[in-house]
Task: structure prediction
Amino acid sequence: MMDPSDEELAPAVRSILAAARERAGGDECLAVDARSFPAAVAAAEADGRIPVIAEVKPTSPTTEGRRDDDPVALARAMVAGGATAISVLTESDHFGGSTDALERVRAAVDVPVLRKDFIVTESQFDLVASDLVLVIARFVDDLPGLVAAAADRGFQPLVEVHTRDELERALDAGADLIGVNNRDLGRLEVDLDTFESIAPDVPADVTLVAESGIDSVDDVRRMRAVGADALLIGSAIMDGDVTDNVRRFTTA
Result:
């Protein structure tokens, strides 16, 4: 049965969320020795690079076509361009990702790796090890419980928000890594004003990531000017030579 709140979501997102709610979790609780994302951000800054999480994204409901390059080759090319971290989609039905791709990428690179998925139950953390895991505040009832469950396993939870109310929920849940998604998952529309309106309310001791809709060097500078510690960039990096694209954003 559909949750009444799901009626506000775009059909593609309803489909993704329904699949996530049916997805089984792992059989055993993972224990992860995570590579520190805040330390990686600080190292990039010290090296004169803008911290960028480059995303290995074969496809998505908001992009046309599909890119079937080997995920390991893509991730290595992104790191060669200066990526601070790598994001790997593990949702298979709508994004073409897999837990196998994440495992292979994490074994092949020495930077933090983010698992990008729609995680709604604690046991779903136990499907694959990563350094960071995405937790989308909008789709989680017990946000403090899920954030704590991720941290208990050694993951660094990146809590994604889109509104000030969701930001308050994330802070109350103890999140110290927060991503502001410029894309409204209700309508799948992107507005960079979203980050600009929320960023001033984020405490200074929180590592803040700008997500979605970052397509140009000007967008990077705009997000950094209002407080982005790092930027999560997918389509604009996957469209073309990923090494050159990452280098362009990290030296903006």
